[in-house]
Hints:
The structure is a homodimer of 345-residue chains.
Chain A: H1 3-14, H2 18-25, H3 33-45, E1 57-64, H4 70-85, E2 89-94, H5 103-112, E3 114-120, H6 126-134, E4 139-142, E5 154-157, H7 159-172, E6 178-182, H8 188-203, E7 213-215, H9 220-231, E8 239-241, H10 245-257, E9 267-272, H11 276-279, E10 285-288, H12 291-306, E11 315-318, E12 321-323, H13 336-339
Parallel strand pairs in A: 1-2, 1-3, 3-4, 4-5, 5-11, 6-7, 6-8, 8-9, 9-10
Antiparallel strand pairs in A: 10-12
Helix pairs in contact in A: 1-2, 1-3, 4-12, 7-8, 9-10
Keywords (chains A, B): DNA-binding, Transcription, Transcription regulation
GO molecular function, one term (chains A, B): DNA binding
Domain HTH lacI-type (chains A, B): 5-59
Amino acid sequence: xxxxxxxxxxxxxxxxxxxxxxxxxxxxxxxxxxxxxxxxxxxxxxxxxxxxxxxxxxxxxxxxxxxxxxxxxxxxxxxxxxxxxxxxxxxxxxxxxxxxxxxxxxxxxxxxxxxxxxxxxxxxxxxxxxxxxxxxxxxxxxxxxxxxxxxxxxxxxxxxxxxxxxxxxxxxxxxxxxxxxxxxxxxxxxxxxxxxxxxxxxxxxxxxxxxxxxxxxxxxxxxxxxxxxxxxxxxxxxxxxxxxxxxxxxxxxxxxxxxxxxxxxxxxxxxxxxxxxxxxxxxxxxxxxxxxxxxxxxxxxxxxxxxxxxxxxxxxxxxxxxxxxxxxxxxxxxxxxxxxxxxxx
Amino acid sequence: xxxxxxxxxxxxxxxxxxxxxxxxxxxxxxxxxxxxxxxxxxxxxxxxxxxxxxxxxxxxxxxxxxxxxxxxxxxxxxxxxxxxxxxxxxxxxxxxxxxxxxxxxxxxxxxxxxxxxxxxxxxxxxxxxxxxxxxxxxxxxxxxxxxxxxxxxxxxxxxxxxxxxxxxxxxxxxxxxxxxxxxxxxxxxxxxxxxxxxxxxxxxxxxxxxxxxxxxxxxxxxxxxxxxxxxxxxxxxxxxxxxxxxxxxxxxxxxxxxxxxxxxxxxxxxxxxxxxxxxxxxxxxxxxxxxxxxxxxxxxxxxxxxxxxxxxxxxxxxxxxxxxxxxxxxxxxxxxxxxxxxxxx
Lengths: 345, 345
């Protein structure tokens, strides 16, 4: 089945001209919505694929669901490192906080014919995936927020192991009342980190206490707000796994407001190892997520796919590692100090 | 003079075909280097300008000289805010630390035909400026590093006023030995901030002491290194204007290493007001540079230029403002505490 035949076939079946089908394929705006949908439906039904080798632009599309965080810069740097080597430019978009980008973004991508698409914390719905596949535009998800679906190429990190390592570090120091500030529960990475926390407690024979576990949204302000709740408990935790670095800094602020010293009165572990984790006072013990390397691996993967090279595996999780700094220490005369019954030594 | 006539004229003079001139105009790679240079030279000499209205792509080019810093994210967000409203996508590049992007970047821009170009801390040389002008691609410099040159549209901030305000704040608190960690001296913004510092001292009748003034590079590590030098002086400063926020955090680290408390033993003022300035301990007093707004104004300006609207002014400096937080306080029994002669009250 040659491309010309299929184009003509689809045009005939849709009752339009071949150039109109071509316009739809190229994401051109000058096709009526109803016609476009009919043609898209036929392209889908016939499993139409643009012949490999159709000229693509030396562009990589990079989409974030939000650009708020310093987190995003680590990813951009990784993509940029590989793109520059390969002579590709990056087209950057933000999906305004939605985890799936809108149709206007897809139309733009079809018109630009990029070499590939990188999605950060976002997924494409089935129809969007088919539209890209029909134009032979590969895509890879970086740090998938939800389950990206069978066969969708994705590069993540070992979030569960990271949550486990963070919590074990606190257990090893002697902490028993360990709080958790989780991320949004709709995100896979938050769930995996929280499950790692739970597994570590369980393996240490410590009962899971739902009162010590609260959801945040991965931003600084949530860390402060939820931190104030946790530190205001009648029997407050001596240590908190803060879910990510920004929440850890919010928790630092909550501790300062309450006059609690880190690590003497409260141990804190973050997640991400953003540059600022080294710079805060005290420097933050955290779980390093290799964001820049994840972005580099994903960029190489999407370029391989664009060249028709099938990577050995379409799902990679890069390892996390605990980085010990100065925000964690053994608890001071655990829990009894709260009641003021135990004198300072 | 119509476009066709000029193209033909230039082709005749260069001894090539009109399509070859067209290829050069569109940044196509398949023209011999010598031919390309001859044609570029003729385009320049004849002051050739592509007729306004030639179709441009709905892209904005955004170029950084480096993406290392969280600073860059504030700018990206501002550009993205306006680009999204206007239905434009952003093509992001990094010029690998050089303040002027290379020719391969220019070729890419000519091939992509963006609506406009935004340069951050970078300038274009004269030939690059003429290549863009010949294709009617406007550009605006955000926070010009050097003098962008007469008539070059640019959006900056009042760096001199900011340096003055930072230093005056410390003087008002009673400090007399005030150090400065400057940025790279090749950057206009560092020079302006340093001159503001000097002017404030001068107006307060305090002699400028070169020993208290050192150059950094706007990164965290320089703040720590230069901070250790300043704090190791026989008569150390009681306050330091750190040049930017990252250097201020480096200085925080230097102070921690020496067991000096902020603000009791050392007052610190930053510059930028990055999000992390609020999050560190103690929260940083700093000069707010409205990076996101600067990027928004620059983006609107380049879009206006692309539409043929001449903005009222081509040079805008947005105002800085001092944000007082907790890293500054009056000096404790100034200078005598250093010698240990003055007992604590």
